[in-house]
Each structure stands twice: as structure tokens, then as C-alpha cells.
Amino acid sequence: MQKRFNLQPGAIADLPRMQQTFEASVRQMCNRDYTEAQLDAWIGRATPSRWEELLTGDLQFLLAEEEVTKALAGFTSINTQGYLHSMFVHPDYQRQGVATLLLNAAEAFARKHDAPSVHSEVSLTAQPFFTAKGYHIIKEQTVNIHRESLQNAVMEKQL
Fold first, then answer.
1. pLDDT tens track for 17-70
2. Backbone phi and psi for residue 116, each to the nearest 5 degrees, phi listed first
3. Measured distance CA(101)–CA(22) in Å, rounded
4. Helix axis angle, 15-29 to 36-45, nearest 10°
5. Dihedral over alpha carbons 51, 52, 56, 62 (to 10 degrees)
6. Max alpha carbon distance in the chain (Å)?
7. CA pair distance 94, 73, nearest whole angstrom
């Protein structure tokens, strides 16, 4: 049976589920492109105070919940200028349309606010997905987190 997902806005009360989804996604999905030390640094950057700062800032968080179980399948965040800050899908829900659902909703949010494009800093792991969705690399970069250097790319799609 095909699973169905519902979108809803994210809130402070969702932080524990979001943190768990983020950590599982990074650890299990990105481990072929990044070392364990890099993954530890990436995850370590996402402190509870950082999550609260993001949730109370200018980002709109959208959560995809599995319709029956209400499990958090994934989430994304975007601001009115088209900056896609995050997109993480729990490993249990990979390849079930969750990322596409979230990205379509984020792009619709950006269009609603007249953003000319959507742009994001995209991990090596996620670059093929974004490329398939019409994004192109603006620049490749190295991000330093807690003495670890991680490669990613700034990608953009014109709306």
C-alpha cells in the first residue's frame, strides 16, 4: 500500500522529532559522502538553542507526516527570499516522494512571496536529487564546522 503524507507547519513542540529525523538522515544517508568525524561535526552544530533560533527566525518550517502513524517522515525550511535552509528525510521514508513533496511545497512558498529563485547549500549526498529537480550549481564550497571541513555546493533554481 502506498503511504500518504500530510504537510503541516513546524513548531517548537516538534523539535525532538525534527532533531531525531535530522540526525538519522545525516548519519544514515550521508555516510557515503562524509566521514564519521564530519557527520559528528554537522550533527553537533544542531544544538537545541540553534533549532529554537531557526524556528523563531524568518524560516517557514514544513513537516511531512505519515498519514496513518503521524510519524515525521521529513521536513524542510525556507524563507520568503527563497533561501532553502534545510531538507531532511528520515531513512525509513527515503524514495517515497517525501523530498519531492517538501521541495514542491517550499518552492510554492517562495513563489507566493515573489522570490525569483530558490537557492540552498546542498550536501554532496543531496546534489543528484536537486539536479534532477532543475537546480544547478552556482559554486562548490568548503564549510568548516568544529575543525572539520565539509564539501557542499550552492545550488539554485529560477522560479
1. 999 999 999 999 999 999 999 999 999 999 989 999 999 999 999 999 999 999
2. -75, -20
3. 17
4. 160
5. 40
6. 45
7. 9
